[in-house]
Amino acid sequence: MGDRPSATLPLPQLVRLSLYWLGLSSIFAGLTNILGNRLQFTGLVTPGTEGTTLFGLTIGGSVVALLVQPTIGSLSDYTTSRWGRRKPYILIGSILDVVFLYGIATSNGLLAIAGFVILLQFSSNFAQGPFQGYVPDLVPAHQVGLASSLVGLMQILGQVAGFTIGSIAAATHNYVAGTMALGVLELATMLSVVLRVNDGTTTKSRNGRSWFSIAREAWGTDVLREHSFLWLVGSRLLFLMGAAMLVILGPFYLHQTFGLDEADSGTTFLIVVAFVLVANLLAVVPAGRVSDRVGRKRLLYLSFALGGIGMAVVTVAPVLPVAYLGVSLFGLASGTFLAVDWALMTEIIPKASSGRYMGISNVATASASIFALALGGTLMDAVDRTIGPGEGPRAAYGLAVAFFVIGGLLLRPVHERRAATLDSGSPD
């Protein structure tokens, strides 16, 4: 039961397995962009406090994501239903996402927005925790590189779609329509999984244990024995912190550092997205396939190096064309990382508990924005108040360079192949 399947999947099935990532990735990429612009241009907060306010709006939701995703992922490992063990969670979570996005879109008070962001993180991770178990569940070893490349590609396209929707919302000052467009996109991609994907994996037996006991299992101490997994999660966290810094503080960088107004900031962010997208697309599929031959870690080291160099260029860019060069290098880095990191993660986790372990691994995804805003947003506001507006985003981006350096160092203890240890579903 803990072994990876061996049957080759047709390409359309691999695409359907990955497509929901487009909808999931678009939500918070677009929402962060929209909230950043609402804080700057709709009078919700006092100028100079945007970074810390955005942190306050999202911290509660991020904490919820940390708790929900591994727990629900673990529950789905044991779930039996006529739709399979993953689909009920995906369907319910996606529908609730639309409800809570509407709440965010129509709320004009900071407390109400923060409350709906918490609910959105609950519902989104209620769906995502089980969903990300599909690649370990269904994909044979010889297709992991291709499947992970497709996952990375859909995540990239989702982020680009989210950034684009958010930028159009800012450029047209229509934040309600922009927020709801994110929900429509997620629902459309959810149907590709719920209607067309066969779970195909035997559910783990509960052996008479209660669902509460299963939920607690997600946080069992047996995970501490998976040393490569823990180091890889730490490395992922640092990369995603650097990436989150670029994206989340992008509207502030364009407005404060280069003096762009609301419309120009939204339009210019679309240009930034275009550079990142092209670079992502150039890297993501080749990176997954090349890593099949030369190893995952070599490609991951390259992604950290390119990410650090790209962020350094953005940090010191005197004019926007130089910044575009930096974000292009970052795009190559993120395309490589998204494909290869996912492949390596699916290879080193216990397969029978894929929902649980992939949920834990995405603690890094959920917490990256927390740390990026806590460190970068606070630093940005402090530097802006001390030195003057415009220097704060540069200081935060300089900090992001250090994240890429440290993240690369955390890869060193990771072994690329899982040791032959007992694939137990029970915590210590």
Observed structural traits:
disordered C terminus, mainly alpha, Growth Hormone, Chain: A
Question: Can you offer a commentary on this structure?
Answer:
This protein is mainly α. It is built from 16 helices and no strands. The protein has one domain: Growth Hormone, Chain: A (Up-down Bundle). It has helices at 11-41, 50-77, 87-106, 110-131, 134-138, 144-172, 175-196, 211-217, 227-248, 250-257, 262-294, 296-316, 320-348, 354-361, 363-386, 391-409. Helix 3 packs antiparallel against helix 4, helix 10 packs across helix 11 and helix 10 packs antiparallel against helix 16 (391-409). The protein is globular and about 60 Å long. Residues 419-428 have low confidence and may be disordered.
Helix and strand arrangement:
Layout: H1 11-41, H2 50-77, H3 87-106, H4 110-131, H5 134-138, H6 144-172, H7 175-196, H8 211-217, H9 227-248, H10 250-257, H11 262-294, H12 296-316, H13 320-348, H14 354-361, H15 363-386, H16 391-409
Helix pairs in contact: 1-2, 1-6, 1-7, 2-4, 2-8, 2-14, 2-15, 3-4, 3-7, 4-14, 6-7, 6-11, 6-13, 9-12, 9-13, 9-15, 9-16, 10-11, 10-16, 11-12, 11-13, 12-13, 12-16, 15-16
Estimated share of beta-strand residues: under 5%
Helix and strand element order: HHHHHHHHHHHHHHHH
Quickly give the structural class.
mainly alpha
Query: The biggest beta sheet, please?
Result: none
Overall pLDDT metric: 85
Q: Give the C-level CATH assignment.
A: Mainly Alpha
The total count of helices amounts to: 16
- End-to-end span in angstroms? 20 Å
Poorly predicted sequence stretches spanning 5 or more consecutive residues = 419-428
Number of strands: 0
CATH architecture: Up-down Bundle
Query: What is the CATH T-level topology?
Result: Growth Hormone, Chain: A
Q: Which outline best applies?
A: globular
Identify the CATH homologous superfamily. MFS general substrate transporter like domains
Q: Over all CA atoms, what is the radius of gyration?
A: 20 Å
Supply the number of structural domains: 1
Helix content: over 70%
